Each structure stands twice: as C-alpha cells, then as structure tokens.
Amino acid sequence: MLYLATLADCDVMAAIHATAFPAPDAWSRDVFSLQLALPNVAGLLHPSGGTILLRVAADEAEILTLAVTPTARRGGIGTALLLEAATLAGSMGARTIFLEVSVANIAARRLYSGAGFIETGRRPHYYSDNSDALVLRLDLAPVD
Ligand SMILES: CC(C)(COP(=O)(O)OP(=O)(O)OC[C@H]1O[C@@H](n2cnc3c(N)ncnc32)[C@H](O)[C@@H]1OP(=O)(O)O)[C@@H](O)C(=O)NCCC(=O)NCCS
C-alpha cells in the first residue's frame, strides 16, 4: 500500500501537507522537490492521504515531516508511515531516528510514543505559536 515517493509525487505530497498543516506551515511542491532531490532524503506516500519525509546522515535519521489528511486519520496510516520510514532509515544506514514535535501536539506525541520514541531534549519556544519542541529519539534494532 505504501510506496516510495519520487519527484513525480511532489504535487500529491504538497496537497496532503496543505490539508494537514495551517497555511504558513504547509510545504509547497517546490520544497518537497528540493528535499527529494537530495540523495540522503527519502519519502513515502500512502494513497489514502499520508506522507512522510526522512533524511539520513551517517548513522542518524531525522523525520522531516509527517502528515495525514484529516479525513484519513485514526486509521493507522500515520503509524504505518512511521514504521516503514524506520525500516527505510535502517536500510539507508541509520541506527537512530530523531524528530521534533510540539509539546502541544498531543496526537503526534501519542503516535510517536506508541512507536517507541522517547524524549531526549526540549527546545523552548521553538514553534511560531511559542510552544516548546520536544526532541524524540528511537534506537533501531541492529540489522544482521
Ligand atoms: C499526527 C498524525 C500524523 C497522526 O496520523 P494518524 O494516521 O491519525 O495516526 P494513527 O491512526 O496511526 O494513530 C496512532 C495513534 O496515535 C494517537 N493519536 C492519533 N491521533 C490522535 C488524536 N487526535 N488524539 C489523541 N491521540 C491520537 C493514538 O494513540 C493512535 O492510536 P489509536 O487510534 O489506536 O488510539 C496526524 O494527526 C496529522 O497529520 N496531524 C497533523 C500534522 C502533524 O501534527 N504531524 C506531525 C508533526 S511532528
């Protein structure tokens, strides 16, 4: 069901993102294109309306963004994208995944803690609404 995004998918990814984030925070097609053109960035798409982007540097990965369109939420798409991104990150050489999430984003925080992420830091007043960012970390199982 999930598939690896290509540059041809950037319109779809931007459309999903625009439904999931307020306008100032939504990423344009060009932002997705610039990111996906990088050799260490990969994206996944769920055809029902979800997308995730990750970047790998050495043995660390970062989730750059995760978005599920509101009408498709609470069906496991966010979790599926996150778990597949973790597998993908591992195959790209990552041993650890990091991400940032607003302390006010209860939905995402529950999703991440359910997937095994733990809090490792906090950036005060990080977001435009003045909320703190929590830095979360997931250690990947070693690949044989
Ligand atoms: C966060 C987000 C990606 C979750 O996507 P989703 O497809 O609804 O997630 P899932 O269905 O896999 O939910 C997994 C778990 O997360 C938690 N969760 C998800 N949405 C929740 C909500 N609105 N309230 C409370 N918990 C929630 C629940 O524990 C849920 O498990 P359950 O449905 O069995 O109770 C989605 O709400 C979204 O796109 N939000 C806006 C963008 C965003 O915040 N992105 C993350 C930025 S760091």
Task: Kindly describe this structure.
A 7-stranded mixed sheet has the order 1-2-3-4-5-7-6. It has a domain at 3-100: Gcn5-related N-acetyltransferase (GNAT) (Aminopeptidase), CATH 3.40.630. By secondary structure, it is an alpha+beta fold. The longest helix is centred in the middle third of the chain and has 15 residues, at 77-91. The two termini are 26 Å apart. Helix content is 30%, strand content 31%. It contains 4 helices and 7 strands, in the order E-H-H-E-E-E-H-E-H-E-E. The model has no long low-confidence stretch (mean pLDDT 97). Strand 2 (41-46) and strand 3 (50-57) form a beta hairpin. It is globular and about 35 Å long. The structure holds coenzyme A. Residues 20-21, 66-68, 73-79, 101, 105-108, 110-111, 114 line the site of coenzyme A (COA).
